[in-house]
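Sat 14:20. Reprocessing the chain from the morning session after the first attempt stalled halfway. Input below, unchanged.
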Amino acid sequence: MSSTSRIPIIDIAALLAGTPADEEAVAQTIGRACRDIGFFYVTGHGIPAALLAEVFRQSAAFFAAPRPIQDPVRYSGPAGNRGHIPLGAETLEPGTPPDHKECYNIGLDLAADDPELLAGKPFRHRNPWPDLPGFRETMLDYFGRVHRLGCDIHRAFAIDLGLDRLFFEGKLDRPMAILRLLHYPAVEGVPPAGRMGAGEHTDYGNLTLLAVDEVKGLVVRTRSGEWIEAPRVPGALICNIGDCLMRWTNDTYVSTPHRVTSPHACDRYSVVFFLDPNPDAVVACIPSCVRDGVAHYPPIVAADYLLSRLVPTYEKAG
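Finished this time. Tokens:
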């Protein structure tokens, strides 16, 4: 059985059309994937291929840019979670060498007079923008589209879990979302023991939407413990469940460990969108997900939860 046949490919065009009967069918299919492997491919998402190609082109241009372009947009730290994270600055898997990757994080773009920004609220920071023509416009266009897509997929989650179909809508309208550009440089020879492009981990938030180039690297662990490749499917995005949504659903949906191997023949690029809730959203067990009267996790404010996950990631990298 191929990797892609074990990670379902789901056409969500009917979900986006908004017809109740069609929404229900797509929601049930997505729900099965979330309960099983926690990963699925999304087709029919409506994001233009030309826009995604331009996102990849702009991403490669940034990572190839000289220091005078990159230095002014260095990472703001976990509380802001924006900007350029240089090679070796993250360690996703404890006890291993730093990940062999560099990143650029873009958050919700806020006006200079935004009240939450002025008040210093958690994860309310300005985006630093590199001096590259068209970069900001391209990334914000993509951010807006994939944010909307993530909210639409949450509508399927709500239907599948027996909630009001708009249950998540007001919890995701000003999210702690991050659009992350990733560059995995090719490795020559044998890498140090344990070094990966990205070490084994689960994602922290609610939902991840990933676009990849043609260079292989993403590997997913099934519920039985087997590691399988998640190759590129033309025209599809890869979607997976994060720990915050697993917590919200009382382990009904599963966040699945995955990792990225370092490329050898050429560099690898990917574009990932992490959809976390609004900072002040309270993540508490959904009643329909309580089994035998047991809630596995106490309620927590979303910003506190995310910060508790981000800080160790950078401390481990030293």
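The two ends are 41 Å apart (CA to CA).
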